Amino acid sequence: xxxxxxxxxxxxxxxxxxxxxxxxxxxxxxxxxxxxxxxxxxxxxxxxxxxxxxxxxxxxxxxxxxxxxxxxxxxxxxxxxxxxxxxxxxxxxxxxxxxxxxxxxxxxxxxxxxxxxxxxxxxxxxxxxxxxxxxxxxxxxxxxxxxxxxxxxxxxxxxxxxxxxxxxxxxxxxxxxxxxxxxxxxxxxxxxxxxxxxxxxxxxxxxxxxxxxxxxxxxxxxxxxxxxxxxxxxxxxxxxxxxxxxxxxxxxxxxxxxxxxxxxxxxxxxxxxxxxxxxxxxxxxxxxxxxxxxxxxxxxxxxxxxxxxxxxxxxxxxxxxxxxxxxxxxxxxxxxxxxxxxxxxxxxxxxxxxxxxxxxxxxxxxxxxxxxxxxxxxxxxxxx
Length: 384
Fold this sequence. Notes:
CATH topology of the largest domain: Thrombin, subunit H
Distance between the termini: 133 Å
CATH architecture of the largest domain: Beta Barrel
Mean pLDDT: 85
Strand order of the largest sheet: 1-2-3-6-5-4
Structural class: alpha+beta
CATH superfamily of the largest domain: Trypsin-like serine proteases
Shape: globular
Number of domains: 3
Number of helices: 9
Radius of gyration: 34 Å
């Protein structure tokens, strides 16, 4: 019996060994070639159509009108001699510091708004320029002159004399929608002068953003976007999916100096009005006069007047015969809105009035003895 079992096992082993053995050193057979068929022309056309989106079409239209702005400005530096003789200064007084001048070069962006060569950019790009050169995407460079600049809104208008009509952009008539696609174009860090602009895409993150005033510039009602904006993009356009300009890229919030997805643009509505004034007069007329003397409403004033919150401008005094007196303002009125926009403090009030000009009529909402009241004031002009 044992012999029979051993014989069966031995026979099974022999049968299993009939399969050819394969060493690890033996070469593996070549991989099988998989035959592929190129997509049909119809499929290729479908793929191409999906690649061409509203964004790519807008970029194609906008790109020829976006320029790089190369600026040379004269910077004045006050220099005091560190080795001045104290004995001399004790008897004869301190000598005035020497004023040194040096040329500083910088780069920004801009965009053409008319076929005859008017170009929009930022005041902080070209407002103090002594020489300006504009570079176009096709490699052409032209000398430009500063038509006018408005530091308050940070907008400047340039003019070139082209040999032929230029492609140009138009401003959007409708207000931007939060969440809609937007495209920022420009020359970040001055890397690609006289070349096609850099394109970044994002959405409108918010509208009506108010930033702290900087160097006399009032950044109010700004458009916030997460499209990447870096140094050098200043003055370039922020456009919608139709290729219309909704704002001028102006500022970013950053702790590193680079884009972190929080950029701001001056809205098109304000740019359009400022540009028109710069084209007509070379400056923006801000010689407005109201005759109002006011204070920020604090907690003490709010309690004294029975206001629910410390917000607005407390009218302390009114000049006799002023626009404010003719409009019916009285001491102790509290201004809470201008042209339908809320006013939290004097900075808000000044910023709202900055959107108007002498002769304009503005509606002002006040709280008088606890009751809301609408006043109509025609802004006057400073004299003398």
